Amino acid sequence: MANDPSxxxxxxxxxxxxxxxxxxxxAEQVGxxxxxxxxxxxxYEATFGQLDNALDQLAxxxxxxxxxxxGIGLDVPAPSSEGVIWGRANLGEDWVxxxxxxxxxxxxxxxxxxxxxxxxxxxxxxxxxxxxxxxLLLVAPGTGLGGGFVLPGGRCYEGANGLALEVGHISVPFxxxxxxxxxxxxxxxxxxxxxxxxxALRRRLRLELAKPEWADHALNADPAPVEExxxxxxxFAEKGDPLAxxxxxxxxxILGYAIADIVRTLDPGLVVIGGGLAEASFRDQYLAWIxxxxxxxxxxxxxxxxxxxxxxxxQFEWAVGGDAAAAIGMAYTAQEMFQ
Length: 339
Hints:
The chain contains nine helices and eleven strands. It is of the alpha/beta class and 339 residues long.
């Protein structure tokens, strides 16, 4: 076993931690999930040291020599193309314009393939659904609103420049109470992410708490800044709080509305919803709000077959990979590409 070269690592670089998974030549996970501290703001060389640490732990956990790892899949929380980072995001300055894929391949001595974190998570969700043979669209609300699209057979569609599926920045026709389109973190107005994201949650909560109808709400009495209050909103929603439910209902509906236009373009058949709400106790209700928004915008053929109305043409499911999805996706990718 120690000399079998058929092992492949998936490394998911996040802002806080690096998560790592090892699979064998059957794409089966070997050993436990490994997590080490992320040092992305300290530069890519510091992060490379942490990646080496993760690889050493993967090998030890699987009882193999590290030399048995034949390929690595790597994902980064930033736009990239052919291994080169295009935008800084939350990374240190020296990442941008650097061939991270090539440099880490030279350092590790094995081939490396790199993509962004949303693509990696989409591949992970595909890999975890071994009976699913069609395509898969992942839409993941988080700090922003990310997405990824996997073609039948498990290959992720990244676009000519690695910039495809920026789903958070499609336009939706929803306006603030004053009639204005909300400004997105990207600088544009009216983006889906301006409604469906943690950043949007903070804005909506601030606006709602300023209204007379919520003057006596517990969150108005809370002295914490709105950034901290927004993190508490999920707990309030799980208890059925009217304000929290109203805000999440609006987000879910707008997310479904936006997904309808993506589905009209890609017709994936399966839409997977990722992000932290996958573990919320009200997730069934949230998914129902998504489906309401989808039904408002989607043509009937994207909902039910014209030949058999009992056949649903676009299925919705929650993500199943959790925090490990991206690492699993990159291990799967490495196994597919480098075996």
